[in-house]
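pasting tRNA-specific 2-thiouridylase MnmA for the record, 377 residues
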Amino acid sequence: MKVLAAMSGGVDSAVAAARAVEAGHDVVGVHLALSRMPGTLRTGSRGCCTIEDSRDAWRACDVLGIPYYVWDFSERFKEDVVEDFVAEYAAGRTPNPCMRCNERIKFAALLEKALALGFDAVCTGHYAKVIEDADGNRELHRAADWAKDQSYVLGVLTHEQLKHSLFPLADTPSKAEVRAEAERRGLSVANKPDSHDICFIPDGDTRGWLSERIEMADGEILDHEGNVVGTHPGATAFTVGQRKGLRLGRPAPDGKPRFVLEIRPKDNTVVVGPQELLAVDVLRGIKVSWAGLPIAAAGSGEEFACMVQVRAHGDPVPARARVQAGADGRPELAVSLVEPLRGVAPGQTMVLYQGTRVLGQATIDSARSAAWRGAAG
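structre below
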């Protein structure tokens, strides 16, 4: 099989490519240049896609004896990931740029180009598993190492994309084993730290980064009963669940800290309240997609049991879900959580599971708390 290995410059993608070579595939390595002005060096484990990363990817391909290319996807990344990130924050939502990158860059733009060039599959270092059912249809499942499982950020993959996806690390029991294997293979990235945070905001200052791209204006901070308790320099700089940096001029009657419950960009207000009101039990999801063929209930509108995960490293919680028609006629997910979740914000992605299988995903459009509904009457 002719395989295009996406080489990030990290240890996972390097070992994944090595295993693809060892399996007998015809492998070509490619590093995606996602910025026209990449940083010269990483800062610890922050960020990715730097000049250093491209060089590490080249060194790994050299050790493996496979061809290496750099493809410039910077314009596509800017439009589909960075600009989407800014637009979502401007609309009062909290997006997940890694989901958008996997959806629109690594498994849309990259796979599309790979197939056009005659490749059969794209290989990545993600910790996730693709399993074929009795009819040969592909399903996405959690990796063997749940601590490193990345099936959440791959929940956007479609049935067609799964046909051309290769995840050689699926059954690896631990990240330590991957590093040990890289060491044995002579890969210089064996002890390279994992990247984290948003790659295009390597210093981690999301608020400062957004303030340079979104026009900020002073506005009011309200408590959950509608009382003005402070002011802010711009509503879009806040996220649901935030506690620090509120600088409230009026303390809560019970003296307890308050948290951001809601962001209202239309009137530039931020709503705060007690921590218990962060717990939500009803979610509505838009932009629904299915990882593999959808289950029968997706077409019938019947309610089905599932587990819901709303963060890459969050714990899944039991839920009941059903597909319904939205106001625009497009399918939506209506989800009732058996166990409430805290700090869920519109714009986040909810991924649905049954056992280890990823059913699909949706972007959270609203997250409601029964307690708040009761308090509001």
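The chain is about 25% helix and 30% strand.
The longest strand covers residues 279-290.
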